[in-house]
Amino acid sequence: MLSIRQLDQFYGASHTLRALSLEVTAGSCTVLMGRNGVGKTTLLQCVMGLLPVRSGQMELEGQGLTKLAAERRAGLGIGYVPQGRQIFPLLTVEENLRIGLPARRDKAKEIPDYIYELFPVLKEMRTRRGGDLSGGQQQQLAIGRALVIDPKLLILDEPTEGIQPNIVQEIGDIIRRLNQERGLTVLLVEQKLPFARKVGDNFCIMDRGSAVASGPMAELGDDLVRQYLTV
């Protein structure tokens, strides 16, 4: 589904991504892991075209992304939930969701019913401003907004950060439903190990801008956790 090969990225003189390679197979949930500052968010922003890359290749189902304008990537079927949610606080819930409609490949004009089925609170609060929602509700709105485009690949950057435990549970259940029942491919950045083990099929650990370990989630052993994930 998503193939990244030998990706290099720089902030000024700082070499932030170093010959990074990653394969996200179709229908899987791959969890990108690592301590703060190792380049996880930078990688996601490169995939979305929000940051330039120095060298390397990125492809979605064989379609090159590296030179593609950021505004065209959603149209290929990439849904993105950024760190910190970044919803529009002065727009209503429904208006936030409708923002994704122009990127749909089928040109549908209405919010899919299943978005409200996944997130009933959004239907209840669809006329309320996004900024009036709780943090957990805003996170659900951000995920719903990404799903409105009918993505092939859903990318989430730390969706459990700052969220109350009951909503974390709900988000985990929804990710698994989307992945297992709808066949949606998921790439997830997550630092909470229990959550990662719950939702992930595969893992990739980053350290100092490189991918240092990857494989099935069942093979994420205590040695890797101690070396690369424990603060």
Describe this structure in words.
The chain has 231 residues and is of the alpha/beta class. It contains 9 helices and 10 strands. The protein has a single domain (2-229), classed as Rossmann fold. The chain has helices spanning 40-47, 70-73, 93-98, 113-118, 120-124, 135-148, 165-180, 193-199, 222-229, and strands at residues 2-11, 14-24, 29-33, 55-60, 63-64, 78-81, 153-157, 185-189, 202-207, 210-216. The strands form 2 sheets. The protein has a 6-stranded mixed β-sheet with strand order 6-7-8-3-9-10, sandwiched between helices. It has a 4-stranded antiparallel β-sheet with strand order 2-1-4-5, with helices on one face. It is globular, with a radius of gyration of 17 Å.
Strand order of the largest sheet: 6-7-8-3-9-10
Largest sheet: 6 strands, mixed
Q: SSE order in H/E notation?
A: EEEHEEHEHHHHEHEHEEH
- Uncertain runs with pLDDT below 50, 5 residues or more? none
Number of separate strands: 10
In CATH, the topology is named: Rossmann fold
Mean pLDDT: 94
How much β-strand is present in the residues? 25-35%
**The CATH homology group name:** P-loop containing nucleotide triphosphate hydrolases
Helix fraction bin: 25-40%
Number of separate structural domains:
1
What structural class is derived from the secondary structure elements? alpha/beta
CATH architecture: 3-Layer(aba) Sandwich
Rg: 17 Å
Distance between the termini: 32 Å
CATH class: Alpha Beta
Oligomer state equals: single chain
Counted by DSSP, the helix tally is 9
Question: What sort of overall outline do the alpha carbons produce when their principal axes are compared?
Answer: globular
